[in-house]
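This protein record is not my work; I was only asked to verify it. Would you go through it and say whether the fold makes sense for this chain? Here is the record exactly as it was handed to me.
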Amino acid sequence: MTTLTVNKIEEIKDGINLLLDDPDLGEEERKTILTDIVRENWWPLSRWANLDGAVISDVEKATVGSGVAMLFREDGVRKILLLQAGPHYPRAANTVLYTIPGGFNNLIYTKGSSQVSPTKKPENPRIAAAREVEEELQTAEGPLFSIDPDRLRPMDTDLIVLPWGEKRIVLGLMMELTADEVTKAKQHVQRLASDASYKEAAAARTINDETGKPEVIGAAIFDLDAAAAGHCPLLHEDQRSLFRAVKAYDV
């Protein structure tokens, strides 16, 4: 860099530091300002990124996500329970699209779930996936299932590019539902179809803080063969490879 460039950088930094010295700003406000500046000017930093434990370099890194295929067998036919994506996802605003429960893994701390206590350690994929199942598969009263992460079996992995440019490694896991869970799942699907107030209350429990819209508005049960063959519309087409992987694995 030239001396002129170095001097200009120092001048800009001094200006920013002067603004941040405002005594009315607390630590969180300062961090929010800096995070927004970095996010708005350092493409392709994810819109989910923050400066908590951040590692920023010129080597692009991938985030990690995980999702769960929930399976059971009925009369010799393997079935899969899928969620109907809600208007939080623009593609699902006016189109029926299905998805497995899942999302990103929190690499800063473990939020916890019904069977996992919160910690300051990064979230591993099984724990993250169990949390996502409980958060997204909601009745009007709360989570449909309580998930032990050790029940989840890794089956597939893929790399996807999200609309805002972020690269994410996604881990596909499988969970065989118990007889009691199958009964609950069928009752849930039936009630979603027949009780509008129940459906609305269940969807409200999945409202995303950022968009104010539900991530899930329904659920359905499909034959696994049909889902793997492409006979149900998916929000994330990469999930089809997980369906094929679990189809090939006979428990």
Q: What stands out?
A: The first strand starts at residue 63 and ends at 74.
